[in-house]
Amino acid sequence: MRDRGELLNLLTRPKAALVLPLAVLAVAALIALNELGYRSSAVAAETMVEEQEKRSTLHVLLQQVLDAETGQRGYLLTGDEKYLIPYAEATNSITKTLDNLRLIYVEDRAQLARFVDLSRAVSRKLAVLEVTIKIRQAGGDSENWMQIVRTDLGREYMNATRDSALAMIATAAASMKATQLQIDRSLTISRIGVTLAALLFLLAFILYLRQTEKLDAAGQTQRRLLALERDGLERQVRERTARLTVLANHLQKVQEMEREHLAREMHDELGALLTAAKLDVARIRTRLVGDNEPLAQRLVHLSDTLNSVIALKRKIVEDLRPSSLSNLGLVAALDILVREFGEHTGLAVMTSFEEVVLHEDAQLTVYRVVQESLTNISKYAHAKEITVTMQVYEHHVELDVKDDGVGFDLDTRLNASHGFAGMRHRVEALNGTLDVISAEGHGTNVRVLLPKSSPSLPDLDATITPA
After folding, report:
1. Chosen CATH of 322-456 out of 3.10.20.310, 3.30.565.10, 3.40.718.10, 3.40.449.10
2. How many CB atoms are located within 10 Å of the residue 344 CB?
3. 352, β-bridge pairs
4. What is the pLDDT of residues 386-424, one digit of tens each?
5. With helix as H, strand as E and coil as C, how does 141-202 read?
């Protein structure tokens, strides 16, 4: 396989050396043409915007001069001063418009002379309008301002204004047309460049396809081998994971069986020995002759010690295998466990248990989860109040163990806790789920969902066959 790959590499190396320069050349050409076209188009677009602004401003100026003349004529004919309002607004706007045009044409030496002529004609036109209005406002004879109107000075200045503005507008339009032609040329050059770059790309792609076809057979063979190897590894992982899961379940079951056996032995054998010892102490006390006070005290102390050992034995036996679970059922066993925990720790414990019929393994799992949760609470939670509830639904049972303690960060502690890992494994082995909800300063809630028809733990001998 290695020799074949090296041979294919030698055969395709010249073409690979040709493909890369072609691709780089095509990319460089495309980038250069694109940048050139962009800059040229950007400058042309900016020029068109400027010329359009000139045209618009010139049209606005002509309209403002006409508005001023209209207001002047209305006031001269009627004497009503309301016509002076649009006149005043128009003259103020004309001043601002001329200032804008001056800023626009200040760097355009070719058009600056025309702007000066336009500004002079507008100023003369406004002067004629102002003179007639002042004469009319002064209450003079109508012949005075009519004589000024008849001189045709206003019309001449208006024609001069219009001619200058139209000439400047025509110049702006011609500039816009030239700019449009420049944009068309830039687009044409860009189209030609993109076409050439596309052809270069196409040539490089054809060479790449030919090279790829030669390597495709070897690549497919290698992929098939890798797929077969991957499938084999995945199969081994699944098998070993299943073996480890079954083994863990088996060890858990064996552990519970050993606990049950040890609890039974301690209850029967050690219980019998302790009972016999208590009976012997009682017989010695009844046969004690005389007033031997020190010996009597020793016997009382021995009897108390035996009672303490018996109580300790009972506690150990209940921790190993709760007899209440087998004799009284799950609800009674949980109630006893929680009540004794509250008496031992002095914490306020609230309970709410609903009766349910579960498989023996499921009952023991629920009991162990509550037991482990209470142990964690007593060690780490610093809680004041605990709530343990078990609710029964149609298809599942929900168990909640809550406390108002200090809580913890799930990301830092949950994965490192073997206690939670053991509880989770117990629950998941019975097709259930265990969730831990906690945050620093907000307590902890351990929630378990178990199906009511939970299966028993699988047997190792029935699941794993010899290799």
Report:
1. 3.30.565.10
2. 11
3. 389
4. 999 999 998 899 999 999 988 888 777 666 566 778 888
5. CHHHHHHHHHCCHHHHHHHHHHHHHHHHHHHHHHHHHHHHHHHHHHHHHHHHHHHHHHHHHH
